[in-house]
């Protein structure tokens, strides 16, 4: 057996025999290629070449595709109405700002990690965020419970995000919006951090709280007795919260 222009080497060639067998080298030339081409003859009626539009193929892969991201608006006009699908629940002083209820306690790991994830996602947009730590101020906790009254108990667990008086939800809802690429539409129209907005509060340094001026953080105040034989009385300070803190009057 052999191919066109194949050659059987003799014993005088430089290739030694291996196991008593001689090498059979096949050399493919233009003649061989011509014979191979005849194995698949062209059709009698050849079809015209197909034109492939790469833009059509990639139309469903971009983040702006409406079918892949049904909640992502397609135009700047629609971006302003993105929040209308969320329930209208407005925290105090939350009409024109982002309000995020969080906790800084690490007692429940998942809750703390969810707060960190949502905080990073929102602050990464470069907008000012009013963060209300329910572990630092009981009033914030009561405020959140009042906002989600009538809902399940899960809605009282931080993080909880409100944007311009609309209730967005917790960690699952926010992360889902981020993954769909709709997070920019969520805060459309809000001022960016820059220029006049790029500042750190001179009063609290961004913490949002200050030690109480009345009790100096002890949560106690002494009421001096009036008259002879009247003892002084230690009372609970009425000016601070349970942690001896007051809200910063500058940035709160």
Automatic annotation (TrEMBL):
<dbReference type="InterPro" id="IPR002109">
    <property type="entry name" value="Glutaredoxin"/>
</dbReference>
<protein>
    <recommendedName>
        <fullName>Glutaredoxin domain-containing protein</fullName>
    </recommendedName>
</protein>
<dbReference type="Pfam" id="PF23733">
    <property type="entry name" value="GRXCR1-2_C"/>
</dbReference>
<dbReference type="Pfam" id="PF00462">
    <property type="entry name" value="Glutaredoxin"/>
</dbReference>
<dbReference type="InterPro" id="IPR036249">
    <property type="entry name" value="Thioredoxin-like_sf"/>
</dbReference>
<feature type="domain" description="Glutaredoxin">
    <location>
        <begin position="98"/>
        <end position="168"/>
    </location>
</feature>
């Amino acid at each position: 057996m052999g191919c066109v222009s194949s050659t059987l080497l003799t014993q005088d060639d430089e290739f030694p025999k291996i196991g008593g067998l001689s090498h059979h080298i096949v050399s493919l030339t233009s003649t061989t290629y011509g014979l191979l081409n005849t194995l698949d003859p062209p059709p009698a009626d050849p079809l015209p070449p197909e034109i492939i539009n790469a833009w059509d193929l990639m139309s469903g892969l971009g983040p702006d595709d409406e079918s892949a991201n049904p909640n992502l608006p397609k135009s700047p006009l629609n971006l302003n109405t993105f929040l209308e699908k969320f329930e209208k629940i407005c925290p105090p002083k939350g009409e024109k700002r982002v309000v995020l209820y969080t906790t800084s306690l690490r007692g429940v790991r998942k809750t703390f990690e969810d707060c960190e994830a949502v905080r990073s996602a929102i602050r990464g947009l470069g907008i000012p965020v009013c963060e209300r730590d329910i572990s630092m101020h009981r009033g914030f906790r009561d405020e959140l419970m009042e906002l989600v009254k009538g809902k399940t108990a899960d809605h009282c667990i931080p993080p909880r995000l409100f944007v311009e008086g609309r209730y967005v939800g917790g960690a699952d809802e926010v992360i889902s919006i981020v993954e769909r690429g709709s997070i920019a539409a969520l805060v459309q129209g809000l001022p960016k951090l820059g220029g006049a907005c790029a500042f750190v509060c001179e009063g609290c340094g961004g913490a949002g709280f200050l030690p109480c001026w009345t009790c100096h953080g002890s949560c106690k105040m002494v009421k001096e007795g009036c008259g002879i034989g009247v003892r002084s009385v230690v009372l609970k300070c009425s000016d601070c919260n349970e942690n001896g803190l007051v809200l910063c009057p500058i940035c709160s």
